[in-house]
Protein backbone atom coordinates (compact mmCIF):
# COMPACT_ATOMS: atom_id res chain seq x y z
CA UNK A 1 0.00 0.00 0.00
CA UNK A 2 2.78 2.33 0.91
CA UNK A 3 4.47 1.67 -2.41
CA UNK A 4 1.29 2.32 -4.31
CA UNK A 5 0.79 5.62 -2.58
CA UNK A 6 4.35 6.46 -3.31
CA UNK A 7 3.88 5.75 -6.97
CA UNK A 8 0.65 7.67 -7.19
CA UNK A 9 2.22 10.54 -5.45
CA UNK A 10 5.12 10.51 -7.86
CA UNK A 11 2.82 10.42 -10.84
CA UNK A 12 0.71 13.22 -9.50
CA UNK A 13 3.80 15.28 -8.93
CA UNK A 14 5.12 14.66 -12.40
CA UNK A 15 1.77 15.53 -14.02
CA UNK A 16 1.85 18.76 -12.13
CA UNK A 17 5.36 19.42 -13.40
CA UNK A 18 4.27 18.76 -16.97
CA UNK A 19 1.37 21.09 -16.59
CA UNK A 20 3.65 23.78 -15.26
CA UNK A 21 6.01 23.32 -18.18
CA UNK A 22 3.14 23.54 -20.64
CA UNK A 23 1.89 26.70 -18.98
CA UNK A 24 5.38 28.14 -19.18
CA UNK A 25 5.62 27.30 -22.86
CA UNK A 26 2.26 28.88 -23.52
CA UNK A 27 3.21 31.97 -21.57
CA UNK A 28 6.53 32.15 -23.39
CA UNK A 29 4.76 32.07 -26.77
CA UNK A 30 2.39 34.80 -25.64
CA UNK A 31 5.30 36.81 -24.33
CA UNK A 32 7.09 36.61 -27.70
CA UNK A 33 3.89 37.75 -29.35
CA UNK A 34 3.62 40.62 -26.87
CA UNK A 35 7.18 41.74 -27.68
CA UNK A 36 6.51 41.69 -31.42
CA UNK A 37 3.24 43.55 -31.01
CA UNK A 38 4.26 46.10 -28.43
CA UNK A 39 1.75 45.00 -25.82
CA UNK A 40 3.56 46.45 -22.83
CA UNK A 41 3.01 49.72 -21.02
CA UNK A 42 4.81 51.33 -18.15
CA UNK A 43 3.10 52.39 -15.00
CA UNK A 44 4.69 54.79 -12.56
CA UNK A 45 4.64 54.75 -8.78
CA UNK A 46 5.45 57.99 -6.94
CA UNK A 47 8.30 58.21 -4.45
CA UNK A 48 8.04 60.76 -1.68
CA UNK A 49 10.75 62.70 0.15
CA UNK A 50 9.80 62.82 3.84
CA UNK A 51 11.86 65.95 4.47
CA UNK A 52 9.31 68.06 2.63
CA UNK A 53 6.49 65.65 1.73
CA UNK A 54 7.13 66.13 -1.95
CA UNK A 55 7.44 63.71 -4.81
CA UNK A 56 11.02 63.41 -6.02
CA UNK A 57 10.71 60.48 -8.36
CA UNK A 58 8.77 57.60 -9.80
CA UNK A 59 9.56 53.93 -10.33
CA UNK A 60 8.71 52.50 -13.75
CA UNK A 61 6.85 49.18 -13.44
CA UNK A 62 6.02 47.18 -16.53
CA UNK A 63 2.45 46.08 -17.25
CA UNK A 64 1.31 43.50 -19.77
CA UNK A 65 -2.25 42.84 -20.72
CA UNK A 66 -2.81 39.72 -22.78
CA UNK A 67 -6.08 39.33 -24.72
CA UNK A 68 -6.78 35.93 -23.19
CA UNK A 69 -4.97 36.05 -19.86
CA UNK A 70 -5.80 39.64 -18.96
CA UNK A 71 -3.31 41.54 -16.86
CA UNK A 72 -0.28 39.34 -16.17
CA UNK A 73 1.76 40.32 -13.14
CA UNK A 74 5.45 41.11 -13.71
CA UNK A 75 6.11 38.86 -10.72
CA UNK A 76 5.04 36.06 -13.05
CA UNK A 77 6.35 36.98 -16.48
CA UNK A 78 9.61 38.74 -15.57
CA UNK A 79 11.13 35.56 -14.05
CA UNK A 80 10.05 33.63 -17.17
CA UNK A 81 11.51 36.32 -19.40
CA UNK A 82 14.70 36.08 -17.38
CA UNK A 83 14.88 32.27 -17.80
CA UNK A 84 14.25 32.41 -21.54
CA UNK A 85 16.37 35.46 -22.35
CA UNK A 86 13.31 37.42 -23.48
CA UNK A 87 14.15 39.89 -20.73
CA UNK A 88 16.74 41.45 -23.05
CA UNK A 89 14.28 42.76 -25.68
CA UNK A 90 11.73 43.53 -22.95
CA UNK A 91 14.32 45.30 -20.80
CA UNK A 92 15.63 47.28 -23.78
CA UNK A 93 12.10 48.47 -24.45
CA UNK A 94 11.62 49.44 -20.78
CA UNK A 95 14.86 51.43 -20.69
CA UNK A 96 14.04 53.33 -23.83
CA UNK A 97 10.39 53.93 -23.02
CA UNK A 98 11.04 55.00 -19.42
CA UNK A 99 13.79 57.42 -20.46
CA UNK A 100 11.63 58.86 -23.23
CA UNK A 101 8.70 59.32 -20.87
CA UNK A 102 10.97 60.75 -18.16
CA UNK A 103 12.06 63.39 -20.63
CA UNK A 104 8.39 64.08 -21.39
CA UNK A 105 7.66 64.52 -17.67
CA UNK A 106 10.57 66.93 -17.43
CA UNK A 107 9.22 68.94 -20.33
CA UNK A 108 5.69 68.81 -18.95
CA UNK A 109 6.77 70.89 -15.96
CA UNK A 110 8.50 68.42 -13.64
CA UNK A 111 12.15 68.94 -14.59
CA UNK A 112 13.53 67.35 -11.43
CA UNK A 113 11.61 64.10 -11.48
CA UNK A 114 13.81 61.02 -11.05
CA UNK A 115 13.09 57.87 -13.01
CA UNK A 116 13.74 54.53 -11.34
CA UNK A 117 14.15 51.56 -13.68
CA UNK A 118 14.46 47.94 -12.60
CA UNK A 119 17.26 45.86 -14.08
CA UNK A 120 17.22 42.07 -13.97
CA UNK A 121 20.28 39.82 -13.70
CA UNK A 122 20.61 39.09 -17.41
CA UNK A 123 20.16 42.73 -18.31
CA UNK A 124 22.89 43.73 -15.89
CA UNK A 125 25.16 41.02 -17.31
CA UNK A 126 24.46 42.19 -20.89
CA UNK A 127 27.79 43.18 -22.46
CA UNK A 128 26.06 45.95 -24.37
CA UNK A 129 24.29 47.48 -21.38
CA UNK A 130 26.59 50.47 -20.94
CA UNK A 131 26.49 51.29 -24.64
CA UNK A 132 22.71 50.84 -24.77
CA UNK A 133 22.14 53.21 -21.87
CA UNK A 134 24.61 55.70 -23.25
CA UNK A 135 22.78 55.67 -26.60
CA UNK A 136 19.37 56.01 -24.99
CA UNK A 137 20.57 58.95 -22.93
CA UNK A 138 21.85 60.81 -25.96
CA UNK A 139 18.80 59.97 -28.07
CA UNK A 140 16.29 61.03 -25.43
CA UNK A 141 18.44 63.89 -24.10
CA UNK A 142 17.46 62.86 -20.60
CA UNK A 143 19.56 64.31 -17.80
CA UNK A 144 21.52 61.19 -16.71
CA UNK A 145 21.42 62.27 -13.06
CA UNK A 146 17.66 61.74 -13.18
CA UNK A 147 18.02 58.10 -14.11
CA UNK A 148 18.23 55.65 -11.21
CA UNK A 149 18.87 52.01 -12.01
CA UNK A 150 17.46 49.56 -9.46
CA UNK A 151 19.48 46.39 -8.98
CA UNK A 152 19.32 43.74 -6.29
CA UNK A 153 22.12 42.57 -4.03
CA UNK A 154 22.10 39.11 -5.57
CA UNK A 155 22.63 40.55 -9.06
CA UNK A 156 25.68 42.47 -7.91
CA UNK A 157 27.05 39.62 -5.84
CA UNK A 158 27.09 37.16 -8.75
CA UNK A 159 30.40 38.57 -9.86
CA UNK A 160 31.57 41.31 -7.57
CA UNK A 161 34.60 42.38 -9.61
CA UNK A 162 32.68 42.60 -12.86
CA UNK A 163 29.81 44.39 -11.14
CA UNK A 164 32.06 47.06 -9.69
CA UNK A 165 33.60 47.65 -13.12
CA UNK A 166 30.22 47.93 -14.77
CA UNK A 167 28.78 50.19 -12.10
CA UNK A 168 31.77 52.50 -12.42
CA UNK A 169 31.30 52.69 -16.21
CA UNK A 170 27.62 53.46 -15.79
CA UNK A 171 28.40 55.99 -13.10
CA UNK A 172 30.67 57.79 -15.54
CA UNK A 173 27.60 58.33 -17.71
CA UNK A 174 26.13 60.16 -14.73
CA UNK A 175 23.40 57.70 -13.77
CA UNK A 176 22.55 56.69 -10.18
CA UNK A 177 21.91 53.34 -8.54
CA UNK A 178 19.76 51.93 -5.81
CA UNK A 179 19.78 48.51 -4.22
CA UNK A 180 16.29 47.05 -4.58
CA UNK A 181 14.73 44.65 -2.05
CA UNK A 182 17.56 45.43 0.35
CA UNK A 183 17.93 42.88 3.13
CA UNK A 184 16.48 39.93 1.24
CA UNK A 185 19.57 38.91 -0.73
CA UNK A 186 23.14 38.15 0.19
CA UNK A 187 24.62 39.80 3.22
CA UNK A 188 26.87 42.02 1.19
CA UNK A 189 27.55 44.60 3.84
CA UNK A 190 31.32 44.67 3.41
CA UNK A 191 30.89 45.27 -0.32
CA UNK A 192 28.46 48.15 0.01
CA UNK A 193 31.33 50.61 0.32
CA UNK A 194 32.91 49.35 -2.91
CA UNK A 195 29.85 49.95 -5.01
CA UNK A 196 29.09 53.45 -6.23
CA UNK A 197 25.47 53.29 -5.14
CA UNK A 198 23.33 56.09 -3.78
CA UNK A 199 20.25 54.51 -2.24
CA UNK A 200 19.10 51.46 -0.31
CA UNK A 201 15.50 50.38 -0.84
CA UNK A 202 14.19 48.58 2.24
CA UNK A 203 12.22 45.56 1.06
CA UNK A 204 8.52 45.75 1.77
CA UNK A 205 8.55 42.44 3.66
CA UNK A 206 10.27 44.34 6.52
CA UNK A 207 7.80 47.22 6.34
CA UNK A 208 4.60 45.17 6.30
CA UNK A 209 4.49 44.37 10.04
CA UNK A 210 5.73 47.75 11.31
CA UNK A 211 5.56 48.81 14.07
CA UNK A 212 4.27 45.69 15.85
CA UNK A 213 6.89 43.13 14.87
CA UNK A 214 9.99 43.51 17.03
CA UNK A 215 12.34 41.85 14.56
CA UNK A 216 11.17 43.99 11.69
CA UNK A 217 11.43 47.20 13.69
CA UNK A 218 15.00 46.26 14.62
CA UNK A 219 15.90 45.41 11.02
CA UNK A 220 14.40 48.57 9.57
CA UNK A 221 16.11 50.78 12.15
CA UNK A 222 19.41 49.03 11.45
CA UNK A 223 19.10 49.50 7.69
CA UNK A 224 18.29 53.21 8.11
CA UNK A 225 21.33 53.63 10.37
CA UNK A 226 23.53 51.65 8.04
CA UNK A 227 22.49 53.76 5.07
CA UNK A 228 23.10 57.02 6.90
CA UNK A 229 26.46 55.90 8.25
CA UNK A 230 27.54 54.98 4.73
CA UNK A 231 26.22 58.30 3.41
CA UNK A 232 23.48 56.63 1.40
CA UNK A 233 19.85 57.57 1.02
CA UNK A 234 17.25 55.14 2.22
CA UNK A 235 13.75 54.57 0.89
CA UNK A 236 11.14 52.21 2.31
CA UNK A 237 8.97 50.21 -0.09
CA UNK A 238 5.46 48.97 0.58
CA UNK A 239 4.28 51.80 2.83
CA UNK A 240 0.60 51.03 3.07
CA UNK A 241 -0.79 52.87 6.11
CA UNK A 242 -0.23 55.73 8.56
CA UNK A 243 1.35 53.37 11.10
CA UNK A 244 4.07 52.43 8.64
CA UNK A 245 4.60 56.07 7.78
CA UNK A 246 4.77 57.21 11.39
CA UNK A 247 7.35 54.58 12.30
CA UNK A 248 9.51 55.46 9.30
CA UNK A 249 9.26 59.19 9.97
CA UNK A 250 10.16 58.76 13.63
CA UNK A 251 13.15 56.68 12.67
CA UNK A 252 14.55 59.16 10.15
CA UNK A 253 13.83 57.28 6.96
CA UNK A 254 14.46 59.72 4.08
CA UNK A 255 11.97 58.55 1.52
CA UNK A 256 9.00 56.29 1.02
CA UNK A 257 7.05 54.52 -1.68
CA UNK A 258 3.83 52.55 -1.33
CA UNK A 259 0.11 52.25 -1.82
CA UNK A 260 -0.54 54.72 1.02
CA UNK A 261 0.74 57.54 -1.20
CA UNK A 262 0.07 56.17 -4.60
CA UNK A 263 -0.22 52.92 -6.48
CA UNK A 264 1.58 52.44 -9.76
CA UNK A 265 -0.46 54.42 -12.31
CA UNK A 266 -0.59 55.13 -16.00
CA UNK A 267 1.37 57.99 -17.53
CA UNK A 268 -1.77 60.09 -17.74
CA UNK A 269 -2.69 59.42 -14.11
CA UNK A 270 0.79 60.18 -12.79
CA UNK A 271 0.84 63.54 -14.57
CA UNK A 272 -2.47 64.35 -12.92
CA UNK A 273 -1.10 63.15 -9.59
CA UNK A 274 2.00 65.33 -9.94
CA UNK A 275 -0.03 68.33 -10.99
CA UNK A 276 -2.18 68.21 -7.87
CA UNK A 277 -0.94 69.86 -4.70
CA UNK A 278 0.82 69.05 -2.49
CA UNK A 279 2.79 66.79 -4.78
CA UNK A 280 5.16 69.37 -6.18
CA UNK A 281 8.24 67.68 -7.47
CA UNK A 282 11.45 68.51 -5.67
CA UNK A 283 15.07 68.07 -6.53
CA UNK A 284 16.99 65.73 -4.22
P1 LIG B 1 10.09 45.83 -7.25
O1 LIG B 1 11.07 46.48 -8.15
O2 LIG B 1 10.54 45.60 -5.86
O3 LIG B 1 8.80 46.75 -7.31
C1 LIG B 1 7.94 46.99 -6.23
C2 LIG B 1 6.70 46.15 -6.32
O4 LIG B 1 5.92 46.35 -5.14
C3 LIG B 1 5.78 46.49 -7.49
O5 LIG B 1 5.11 45.30 -7.90
C4 LIG B 1 4.79 47.45 -6.83
O6 LIG B 1 3.55 47.53 -7.52
C5 LIG B 1 4.62 46.79 -5.49
N1 LIG B 1 4.20 47.73 -4.44
C6 LIG B 1 4.45 49.05 -4.36
N2 LIG B 1 3.91 49.58 -3.24
C7 LIG B 1 3.30 48.56 -2.60
C8 LIG B 1 2.54 48.49 -1.38
O7 LIG B 1 2.35 49.46 -0.65
N3 LIG B 1 2.07 47.26 -1.02
C9 LIG B 1 2.29 46.15 -1.80
N4 LIG B 1 1.77 44.99 -1.38
N5 LIG B 1 2.98 46.20 -2.96
C10 LIG B 1 3.49 47.39 -3.35
P2 LIG B 1 4.98 44.89 -9.43
O8 LIG B 1 4.73 46.10 -10.27
O9 LIG B 1 4.02 43.76 -9.49
O10 LIG B 1 6.44 44.37 -9.78
C11 LIG B 1 6.98 43.25 -9.17
C12 LIG B 1 8.45 43.08 -9.49
O11 LIG B 1 8.61 42.81 -10.89
C13 LIG B 1 9.28 44.33 -9.22
O12 LIG B 1 9.62 44.40 -7.86
C14 LIG B 1 10.47 44.07 -10.11
O13 LIG B 1 11.38 43.19 -9.49
C15 LIG B 1 9.85 43.38 -11.30
N6 LIG B 1 9.62 44.37 -12.36
C16 LIG B 1 8.57 45.21 -12.56
N7 LIG B 1 8.74 45.97 -13.66
C17 LIG B 1 9.94 45.62 -14.17
C18 LIG B 1 10.71 46.04 -15.32
O14 LIG B 1 10.33 46.95 -16.08
N8 LIG B 1 11.92 45.42 -15.53
C19 LIG B 1 12.39 44.43 -14.71
N9 LIG B 1 13.58 43.88 -14.98
N10 LIG B 1 11.71 44.02 -13.62
C20 LIG B 1 10.51 44.61 -13.35
MG1 LIG C 1 12.20 48.12 -7.98
MG1 LIG D 1 11.62 46.08 -4.40
MG1 LIG E 1 12.33 43.22 -7.02
UniProtKB/TrEMBL annotation:
Residue span(s) of domain EAL: 24-278
Source organism superkingdom: Bacteria
Identification of the protein by name: Diguanylate cyclase (GGDEF)-like protein
UniProt organism field: Halanaerobacter jeridensis
Residues of the full protein shown: 376 to 659 of 659
Amino acid sequence: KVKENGKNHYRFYSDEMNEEMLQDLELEAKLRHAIDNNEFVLHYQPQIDLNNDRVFGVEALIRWEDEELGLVSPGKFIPLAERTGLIIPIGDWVLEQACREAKEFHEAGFPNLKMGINLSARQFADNNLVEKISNILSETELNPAKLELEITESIIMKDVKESVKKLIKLKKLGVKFSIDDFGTGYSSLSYLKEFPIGTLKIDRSFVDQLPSDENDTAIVKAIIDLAHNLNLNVIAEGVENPEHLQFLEQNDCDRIQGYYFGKPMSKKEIVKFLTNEPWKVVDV
